[in-house]
Every structure is written in structure tokens, then in C-alpha cells.
Amino acid sequence: MSPGAPPEVECTRLSKGFDGGVEVLREIDLRIEAGRTTAFVGPSGCGKSTLLRLIAGLERPSSGAVEIGGRPPAETLRRAGLAVAFQDPSLLPWRTVRGNVELALKLARRRPRPRAVEDLIALVGLSGFGDARPAALSGGMRQRAAIARAMVTEPGLLLLDEPFGAVDELTRRQLAQDLPRLWEARETTAILVTHSIHEAVMLSDRVVVFSSRPARIVADVRIDLPRPRPAGTTADPHFLALSDRVSAALAKGMGDRADGLAAQ
Amino acid sequence: MSARAAAAAFRPAPNGLAGAALLVLGWEAAARAFAGTYLIAGPVDVLAYLSGNGALMARALSETLGNAALGFVAGNCAAILLAAAAQLWPRGRAAIAGLALLVFCLPLVATGPILRVLLGPGPGPQIVLAALAVYYTTFVPLLVGLRAAPASWFDLVRSYGRGPVTELRRVRARAALPYLFAGLQIAAPAAFLGAMVGEFTGAERGMGVLTVRAMRALDVEATWALASVAALVSILAYAGIGALAEMVLRERPPVILSPPGAAGRGAGPARGALVLALAVAAWWIVLEAAGLPTFFAKRPDDFWAAFVTAPDAAAARATLLGALAETAIYVLPGYLAGLLLGAGLAIAILLVPAAAAVALPLAVALRSVPIVTSAPLLVLALGRGAVGTVTLVAIMVFFPSFVACLHGLRQAPGQVLDVFDSYAAGRVARLVHVQVPAMWPAFFAAARMAVPASVLAVTVVEWLATGQGVGSLMALSASLSDYDMLWGSVVAVALLSGAGYVAVGAVERRVLAVYAAEQVAG
Questions:
Q1: Residue of A nearest to B423 (CA)
Q2: What is the CATH number of the domain that holds A220?
Q3: Using alpha carbons only, how large is chain B's radius of gyration in Å?
Q4: What CATH architecture is B8-520?
Q5: What percent of chain B has pLDDT over 90?
Q6: What is the ipTM metric for this complex?
Q7: Which of B72, B71, B139, B127 is nearest to B101 (CA)?
């Protein structure tokens, strides 16, 4: 498989607990289709980000397994076949925006297409800030630089952890239009962690809803809205119906916790 | 990298026992190789000596350890207060740092007798010398640590209408903790050594007294037994502070974003002149207040007379400047060798963690054994030439650089290392792109500390081995009671250190403007 080919991701009876007995994930079974965008939605602190880190091979599961394209995550990591846009931008303070984006290419041992770096910087709306250091940028701009860094290596698997958390509303809408176009053109397998129902439905082909901790899957909603999805999609009755389904599942997932405690 | 790994900077490697065994075997092998030269006693001989003289050793150890502990506490408290004052009072920062440097430059041959006269035959001088040996290497990293926090944290404090004191208590004190622990680890062997060296100046009890006695009697077993005990105590203290640091420092280092504000002016000529004037005033006031006789406690005006206005001032000046030139030649190579040895060893341990098991105890041991004990061996191995001198200086100054850099490398932000993990980046890529850049503030703290340390080390080597330069001149003038020349030598050493310190500061500001803007702002 070439490094850029979109892989399928499979989680089997995946559980994760931390020192001190905090159980974050309980027996997650989940198959994520290749070349599609999947959103994880759930209450704050439910374990979505932990699941993403498990898929990225940054944490080890307590039990169960993650497979990317039928192999352990470590192999995909070694081929630089995935990239993560972290919740916290985690840019190197001493490198410029361009330097941070280029560093990803260096780490992934990739040669960029001509102008790839500049194009991405422009796409995330940072034209003219290529030579700025992170300290000179706003929080939203830093997050966009981190998104550009994650995308520059053209990974087969793209993991986005609340990538628009600090981005202002207008830019957010613009990014919601532009970014999917880019990763769809390359048929990237994208996983998006978010707590915005709107964003999840707008961007993805499928929304997986998690309960409160320990996270279990409470709903799996297929988003069959046609692509591309212009800004007006948000007024589409079908969009609203899907959003309502996700919203109801989310509410149920939060309630589940009380039921779970009562059952014990 | 986990918080646990971050804290591991302070802890000997888990395979410490294997490393210790390797060291002891190497030591025994060296002792056998040099058998008959009366230079090395092996671990077997040392154990035999210790078992035969246990009570004597225990008494000496408890005496020296008590003084070292008091000096350790006093010196580090002084460092914390000085660093806090420099932080709260930015205008006084240059003066505080300058005077702290000058006091650290005072050579033992000058301070020892004065302290003995002032404090009498008791443990006072040992405690003060132990404190003097540790305060500077805690003070300098603390200055860096107190600034090692993201600008947004300070914005938060200010947004609640609170000022610099709250900032210091809530943000800076916490941010400085890793740097404090580095300073304490540097201080552990230094305090013990300082107390021992203090005993050389005329104490009645303690490890230092026994060391002098053993060396005069050419009692190799006793000398090495004393050195081994000193090294062991220091290694235990170093490891103990490391374990404490590991318990306290559980958070991963943050990404420090700080706006690229106007870089500070640094030490301009005006500030330099101010520090010089303060130093002269302090020199005069302290000696007057202590009521020390001008016969041996020369004042600034005595210095001026001896080297400027007296009939034979020109000759005295020529002698002093000639000696200073001989010393200065060795300072830069010795300085660079010590600094790079320290930084290089820290990087090597990061790349090959197993090396820590041998390198850490050896490094602490080299730092805690008095140079008078180890110098003859090193001179034998390396000769009295330039290579020998530079190597000896490097060995005497590398330890603070090593500990500071080891700790600085661990200041690599945890979140950024996650990004590197997500590309399965190797150790070298992490080192080059994250850990070394994150190390620069600590490295420059090390570079500052190493300046006076290497100047003093060159003078010690001159006194012990080469018979040249200011070190030899100080020893000679002390034995001839030529106190004008002795004080002149002290001034020369202080000025040389001050010049080096200013030069390091100039390089530091350029590098940190890129890599750690928070360190150079304001």
C-alpha cells in the first residue's frame, strides 16, 4: 500500500483505562471506511480524544486492538501514513508558520509538490503570515497553521482533534467548505473529533455518537447529504433532521450515565 | 514523552546497580594497573581501610556532612531570595547578578583566611564556604526558570488586577521549579566539597582535615577512602534530590509562547560602570564593617596605591598583567571544553539512556572529590602542558553545565513531542528540532555559570600543577604575605570573569531572541 492510499481503520473490543482506575473507553467496536470522513461526537471528557490518540498509536490500549489497513498503528506511523491536528496547536515557538509546516515534511521524509506549502498556508487563510512566529498569531490562526501542518504530508489517514475550537465563526465556515474538498479530492480517510453537532454533520459522511465516560457508542448516523455541501446546506430540512438525530443521541448518551450507575 | 520520563532527568538510570558495578570494576582494574605508583587505592583497599577506621570516618563524616547541609540550605536560600529580588526589581537585576558573580569569583586563598579570622576556629568558615560554593549555581538557573512561562499565564494574573508579587507566587515560582531542582542537584556535591575545602583552612575536625593529613602522610588508602565516602555521599544526595523532583514535577513542560517584544538592552557600559562602582563600595564597606586590619585585608584605595600611584606600581602592574595574560590563554579553551563536555554528555545520555548508569555517578564523583586529591593522577595521565591544563579545567567545570543541560533538554514541550511521535520521528529528529532548542535557556545559564568557574579552575590548576599565571601568583603572594599582590590578583580574576560574563550575555540575547523570547524581553 502506498503511504498516501486511504486505509480502513478497525477498532476491536478496544478499552482504555488510566492509572488510578479511571476507565475512559469500554469495549469499542468500530469500523471506519477508507476514504470517508467520520466524526466522533460526545460530551466533554468522554474519551473521544483518547480514542483518537489510540488510533494514532500515541497511546496503548488496555485491551483490544486498533488496526489501520489491517496492521497495527505503529506501522502506519513508521511510513508517516497518518497526521494529527492536535487540539492544542503544538507549534514550535522558534519556527515560523512556514517552518512549522515544512518541518512535518521533513519528519515524514516527504518532498513537497512545488508550492504545496504556500498553497496550504493560503488555503487555511494565513497568506502573508508565512514568516510569522506562533507567538505573533491569534489562537485561531495557530490552529489553522496546525491544520496546514497536518495536511501538508498528504496523509492517507487524517486525524483532527477539535481542529476549529479556537477559530472564529466566519473562518470556520470557510474552512468547513475548503478543507473537505481537499481531503475528498485525495480520498483521505479523515476522523474528526468535535463537540459541535453542526460541524460534525456538515463535514462528515458518518457521525459516531459516544456516551459519557466510559465512552460507548450510542448512535451511528449515516450522513447521506450530497457533496459538495454549499453553505446553504445548513438550512436543508434533511440536514436539520440529521442534526436532530445526532442531538437526541447525544442527550441519550449523557443520560445513559445515570442509568448505568443505577444498574450497578 | 510522559511526565514520568520528564522527571527521569533527575534520576539515575534504573540499571544503576549494573553501572555502579562497572565503575567499581574499572576502578579496581585501574588500581591494579597503577599498582606501586602510590596514586590509586582500589575498592578492596578502600573497604579494608574503612572497616579498620570506621569510628574515625563516621565522626569526620558527621562533622562535614552537618556543615555541608547547613551551607547547602543557607546558600540555596540566599540564591532563591536573590533571584526573587532580581525578578521583582528589574532595575536592580544587573546589579544583583553582577555582585553575585563577583562574590563567586573570590578565590579560596583570599576568602579562607578572612573567614577564619572573622568566624574563629569553629565550623563557621566551613559553612560559609559551602554556602558560597552553591548559591551561584542555583541563582543563575533560577533567573532563567522564573521567566520560563507562557505570556498568557501572566496575562491571566494581570487580568485579575494582580501584580508582580502574585505573578511570582502563582506562576513564576511554579515555572522555576525544574530549574530549582537542577540547581539543587548541582549544589549537592558542591556543598560537600565546599565544606571539605573549608576545613583545609584550619579546622580541627572533619573529612577535609583527614584528607590533608592523609595526603601529607602519602597515605593512599586513606586518601581514596575519604574521596570515596565524599563521592558516595554526594551521589546519594544527588539521587535523593532527583527522586524528590520526580515526585513533584509531574506535568509535561508547556509550549512557551511569548510575544517577540523589545529585547532588553543587556549590560550596557552604564550598567557595567554601576556594577563596578557598587562592587568597589561593597568591598570597602564589608571590610570596614568587619574591622579587618589593612595589613592583610586591603581596601580599594590600597589597591589603587599599589598598582597606580606607588613608586613601584608599574612593576607590580607588569607582574599582575603578565600573570593575567598567562591565565587568560587557558580560560577560553578550558571554558569551552568544560561547557561542551557537559552539554555533550547530557545529549549523549538522552540518545543512549543506558550510558547514564555509568556517566551520572562518575560525573557526581568527579565533582565531589577535592581536586587536590584527583589532580596528581590527572597530571600523571595528561602532563602539565596545555592538554593537561585544559582537561583539568574541563573536569572541574563541566558538572553544572551537564546537570543544567540535562534538565534543559527535558524542557521540550510534551505536546510538541506528541506531534513528533505521530510521525514516528526518531531520537535524533526530536533532539535537533525540539530538545536542543528547548535546552538553549538552560544552556546559557550553564554558559554563565561556567565563566567564573573556569577562571577559578585555571588558577587552581596553575597553583597545583603548572606554576604559572594568576593562580601561582596568588599562592606565591599569600606565602610571602604580599597582600597587595594577592588582592590585585583577586581583582584581576573578577574582572576577567566579568568580561567573560558580559560576552556570554551578548551571544545569549541573540540566540534566545529566536528560541526563548520570554528570557530576553524587558
A1: A80
A2: 3.40.50.300
A3: 23
A4: Orthogonal Bundle (1.10)
A5: 53
A6: 0.77
A7: B139
